Structure formats: C-alpha cells, structure tokens
Amino acid sequence: MNFSFEAAKQTSIVDFSVFNLDSLFYSVILGFLTCLVLWLAARRATSGVPGRFQAAVEILTEMVDKQARGLIHNPQSRKLVGPLALTVFVWIFLMNFMDMLPVDLIPAAWHSAGPAMGFKDYMRVVPTADLSTTLGLSTSVLAVCLFYSVKIKGVGGWTHELISAPFGDHFLLYPINFLMQLIEFTAKTVSHGMRLFGNMFAGELVFMLIALMGGVWAWNFNPATGGFWLGVGHVIAGTAWTLFHILVITLQAFIFMMLTLIYVGQAHDAH
C-alpha cells in the first residue's frame, strides 16, 4: 500500500489505496486540539465573572446556538447538532489557521529530516487545502443529514420522499424524482467541500507566490537588478495578505458551519 502523494501522481488512474498522511496527521492533531480547547473551556467555566478564555468560548457558543435555533427547530436534534457545529467551526478554523504559519517553516524541517528517515519530499501543512480532507468533511455532513432524515421521517417516509419529491407523488415521476434527489445530494456534498478547498488552496498559492518574491530577493540582493524592490514587495504583500487572510479563514469556517446547520435543518423538513 502506498502512503505518499507522489505515488498517486505517477499513476494514470485513481488509486484509493493512497493516503495523504500529512493531511491526515495535521487534521487529527488539530481535531484533538479542538476537543482539548472546548473541554478546558467547559471544565473551567464558572458562574462568576468569566475570564477572557471563557468569555470568548461563551460568545462563540452563543453564536452557534443562536444559528442552530433558527435553522433546526427540533430541540432534541439541537442537543447533538449544536455542539457538532461548534466543533466543526473551531476545527476548521484551526486547520485553516495553519496557512498563517510561514510557508516553509514546517516543510523545511520535514525536508531536512526526510533523507535521513526515509520520508518523501512532500509536506502539506494546511489540511483544508487538500481536496480529500474537505470532501471527507462534506461527506460526513451528508451522513449526518441522512441519519436525521431517517430518524425524523422514518425509513418509509424518507424512502417515499426520495421518489415523490420534488415533482409530485406519481409513479411516472418516481424515476425523475429519484434522479433529482441524487443530483441534489451530490451537488450539496461536492459544493460544500469544494468551496472550502478552493478558497484555502488559492490562499496557499498566494502565500507561495509571495514567498517566491522573498526567495528571489534573498538570492539577488542588488538594487540595480530589482531584487531590492522584490524584498520590499515581499514584506508589504505578505503583511497585507496575512491580515486579509485572517478574515478569509474565519469566514470559511463560519460558512462551512452554517451550511452544515442548513443541510441538517433541511433534513428535518418534509417535502
């Protein structure tokens, strides 16, 4: 079994035995960190004047709970979906935040240790810039939606909905309705994952281009050839894009969380 991204690029067909261990490693570590942060917030919560950490988590929790109440009207479902949405938001934010680290900080350490330890010369530190990660997340959301569809409507009710919506309950329309339902599930899942991936992958590319400016400046520090101005542009562009990207990573985590709540809320509605 191959465990490298490079092995996948050398094949002409899709190989589902290839795992991107870098994305898996960072996403799992950040997932544990997410659970630890939320657990510490719950453990240290007091009824008195909250500290900064508790206040920040409480504000975030209230925001998520407010959105969940507006989209999911079943209080029993909110007991699970609310914390799930909060976890998704924090987890995706932390995975996105890896893009704020210097682009060559961790990969440089990996490359220096790679030859001695037999590692591949590849390292991705932003899990959400990997399509397999984002589609895995969106597929998990689809599984949650299907679970609640069956739980709320029953197997019979959900199966009937698959063939009777959106065009009506008529046996001639059953195949068309079922096809439209499959297209809807596929479109929601793919767009849910692709939106997060596209924004994070594009942001990572911009950081790489800015880093290349700094690399050219470092190797060609000569005002006559323009290398000096590349260095100035590297600092200005890097600072500006970093400040802007803070908004991007937060917004993308919020959008993914909101779409999760919307899709789960739709699973509760009957057509």
Topology:
Elements: H1 5-9, H2 21-43, H3 52-71, H4 75-97, H5 105-117, H6 131-164, H7 174-219, H8 227-268
Features:
single chain, 271 residues, mainly alpha, 8 helices, globular, disordered N terminus
Structure, explained:
This protein is an all-alpha fold and 271 residues long. The protein has one domain (5-268). Helices cover 76% and strands 0% of the residues. The chain contains eight helices and no strands. The chain has helices spanning 5-9, 21-43, 52-71, 75-97, 105-117, 131-164, 174-219, 227-268. Helix 2 (21-43) packs across helix 4 and helix 6 (131-164) packs parallel to helix 8 (227-268). Mean pLDDT is 85; it is low at 1-14.
Head-to-tail CA distance between termini: 45 Å
Unreliable stretches (pLDDT < 50, length at least 5) are 1-14
- Assembly context of the chains: single chain
Helices, by number, come to 8
Number of domains: 1
How does the overall form come out from the CA principal axes?
Answer: globular
Q: What would you call the structural class?
A: mainly alpha
**Averaging pLDDT over every residue, what do you get?**
85
> How do the SSEs run, as a string of H and E?
HHHHHHHH
* Largest pleated sheet: none
Please estimate the helix content.
over 70%
The whole-angstrom Rg is 23 Å
How many strand segments?
0
**Per DSSP, what share of the residues sits in E-state strands of 2 or more residues?**
under 5%
